[in-house]
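User: Assemble these into one structure.

Assistant: Restating your components, then the assembled model:
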Amino acid sequence: MAEPLRILSVGAHPADIFDQSGGTMAHHAARGDYVGCVVLTHGARVHDKVISDEMHHRSEVPEADELQSLMAERSDVKAGEAVRACNLLGVEDVYFFGADDAVLLVTDELVRRLARLFRQLKPDLVLTHFPKEGDGLTNAHATAGQIVLHAMALAGGVDPGDRNPPHKAAQVFFFGTGAAAIPRSVWQSEGGYYNDLFIDITDVVDKKLAALDCLVSQGYGGAYARKRIETSDGAFGMAGGVAYAEGFIKLNAETHDFLPVTPRAMAAARASDHELIEERSYRVRVD
Ligand SMILES: [Zn+2]
């Protein structure tokens, strides 16, 4: 490879970048590529052990001031977990934007701040949520994807106060659709989209599991992390013909000089059905 790639993964909530791209980030970091992450919201309201779980069972929640400081405290806990998870994946650069996850909106402030980071970090490849996820309107993941696209457009030009020159990325890979249903053929793209790229993360799935285990405040540590690996990465793997995978959706069509075919596709074409089933059947040790 001529020069290391620069990759930036942008998630709405603290767990998203790990759920959706943890294995892929680990691969690229181990290869010597630059890998950075952005967490747009503090995520203190989403599945938080204290805010969304304990408060749920109280007859009354604390006064505004107390609740605010409790949320700030929980945000720090979540950020600490994300930093530990990144370290396990070999990723050192993580930026917390700290936006409130009550209502995530495409705001001028978030777009400008992210655009500045794009000009500063100069990512070749950007990973983020599909901008039409869910209903594409009120879904925080979709909004995050939209913020990223606006920021990338802005980063392609200058902005007074930012001395970094304009920057354009080469490709965007949107996080794949959820594991409950994984469309994977062009026929299933009618009115929607489908996972058109899988990254085989089988060799680093234990690292990803350890990273998810760090997200204790999210309720991930332990059983859920294992369930998540099997039902999400295992399902992506089944769709991609390997044991565990992460699915992505390319923003731009690719242009090649010749028709592309991957070594994996060639090998799979020459393998028997039983050999293919065996490859998919590997399970990570869960304890
Ligand atoms: Zn999320």
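The chain has a mean pLDDT of 91.
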